[in-house]
Amino acid sequence: MEIIDRVPFDLVPAYHEREAARGRLVGAAKGPIGKILRRHRTDSSTTLIHTMLKACVEKRWDAMLWDTFAGTVRHELSYMGPADIGLVLLCCIKADFGRNSTLVPDLLKRLATLVMAGGKSILPSGVGHASGTLATAAAAAAAVPQASRAHSGRRHRSRRTRHAGSEIRVAKATFPEHALLAGMAAANHFGLREKCGDDLARVAARASQGCGDISSNVLCRMVHHAGSLVSKSHGASGLSKFLQRALPELQMRLNAGIAGQAVSPGDICLIAHAYAHAKRPDTNLFKDLRQHLLKEDGVALLKLSVGELTNLLNAFAKSSDAAKNGNLELFDRLGRQLLQAFPQKGSYESYVEDFQDMLDLRNASVSLNAFAQASLRHEPFFLACDNHLPAFLNSSQCDLRQLAMIAHAYVRVGLSQSCLLPLVWDFATRLAPHSDAQGVALMIFAVTKAAVNEASGFRLLQALSSRLLELLQGPESLYKVPQQTIAVSAYALAKSGYKDCVEEAVWSVLAQHGRCHLRRFSMTEAANLASAFAEVLGNKAAQNPATTLELHTFFDELLGEVTRWISSEDSKRPLPPAAAAKMIVAFGDTKCYEAAGAVQELARRFLLPSPQVPVRSVIQALSKLHVFDEDLVQALTMAQKASVRRRHP
């Protein structure tokens, strides 16, 4: 109650951690006098942190105030301990301050320096704090050795005073856990994975060492941020090692149910989200999570909010087929619980007033997409969406990505004739002129998958292609439009049969951007682009000589990139046979005779010994390029016959 108007509620544990670290520096006096001394013993760093916390409580985000805070933090940084830095980072996250500043990277660097100090500024494990890992001020002062005080960073306090308790040795020490959490959270929030990679790796390594001593709530949040950072950077050794180290610890806590280390249902959502983005999600972990959620007739699910239910559904959907993985009961319970979050009939006004307690358009679209990704059509939930979503489509929160997820979900589960989809096409047509590149690409993919044949669908495709052309021709489009957007859009438009709905200039601009991004494309993305452009050239969709020249130039540069890739170390990694086949067929359809040697090498390396591709198209492409390799053709034919016999014994 003493700090309720001075510290944000979610930062109270970190504040208590900082007070525990500060208490051992002030003194070990017990009783009311010691409490008074610790409360009123202030310095400039303490005053700064209290002021920042107060500003967060009052939601004062004006730039001038936070610029002043930043200048003071820089002045006091050399005197700050890890708990101080952790609180400052958490305040910066709340204020979203530091995105265009070097303050947060400097704080992370200082935190990593303290981490590498070899256990300086540490707290003894297992005393005092409610989490079971932090110490009270008196216990910490009695347990921390003199050397820890000497390196605390506060030079004016590093006197050579010896206390009777300073000789007590602590068997095991724990770095302030909220400081480690703040470091990962700041890197994730401000997108500093690449810029502060080394500092973040040191923080993750320290978290791995003390994984068993971190409270469950903090550990789950660390895992959540680490998983997000790994997924964004496509692999990060330090963070990946932390996730691997935390995995058995989390499984032990889930199964043991030890008091003080219990994992709450909300924390389970964070765990599932983190490990769902791994390349190979641990099936045993998700089995333990499912059992924990379904025990006692699923009472844990009743404690989750609508957003947590949606995130949990999305995480379990990453493991693909729900029936194959034994998740049918969990998905059914999640869907039925989400049904209760829809507003009752005739209560739309009350829904708007109490919006956060109900299922909104974002959560509904994510849930629909999760069911579709798990190959599961939850009939009651899809029917409820048919009835309620039309009222939400005209809201200000509606955007093209959400509409794309809704459309893709309905098409994937076999509901392409739903009465909701024409409404989606109409609203998407209105939003297309103002959408970003990613939203346009997702919507193009969804509408081409739906195989639309009504006028609203064709109008949408024309609006999307016009917006795509505008984005690709805009200033700095090479940096603003992701390469995945180019690959997805080109393949969907070319292979869907809607090429006539697309302006011819779109193909020319897509080819230009494809050439510029060739080094950034994966070989699978490059194969999709090649297949799309070969389709355009083959069907005479590009009648303009300038467009035709651009497309042929793309294939010339693609050949050089493929040749370089084959001779590099990257080619030792397996290329999916389907991608190799697309590349070969595309070169054959465009009659790029210079590619004969490259396609022959691709076929030998990646289509043998057991091609799961249409061999006839590959052989025809080889013939068009004058690759008369009878041994290769015979090997491809025999390999496909063998695979057919295995499928149909």
Structure description:
By secondary structure, this protein is an all-alpha fold. Among the domains are: 211 residues, no CATH class; 89 residues, no CATH class; 76 residues, no CATH class. The protein contains 32 helices and 2 strands. It has a two-stranded antiparallel ribbon. Helix 22 runs parallel beside helix 25. The protein starts with 11 loop residues before the first helix and ends with a helix. The C terminus is likely disordered.
Identify the notable features of this structure and list them briefly:
64% helix, 649 residues, 1% strand, disordered C terminus, globular, two-stranded antiparallel sheet, mainly alpha, 32 helices, single chain
The biggest beta sheet reads: 2 strands, antiparallel
Which geometry do the CA atoms define?
globular
What is the averaged pLDDT score? 81
| Helical content class | 55-70%
Q: Count the DSSP helices.
A: 32
> β content, as a range?
under 5%
How far do the termini sit from each other?
74 Å
Biased composition (Basic residues): 151-163
Region (Disordered): 145-165
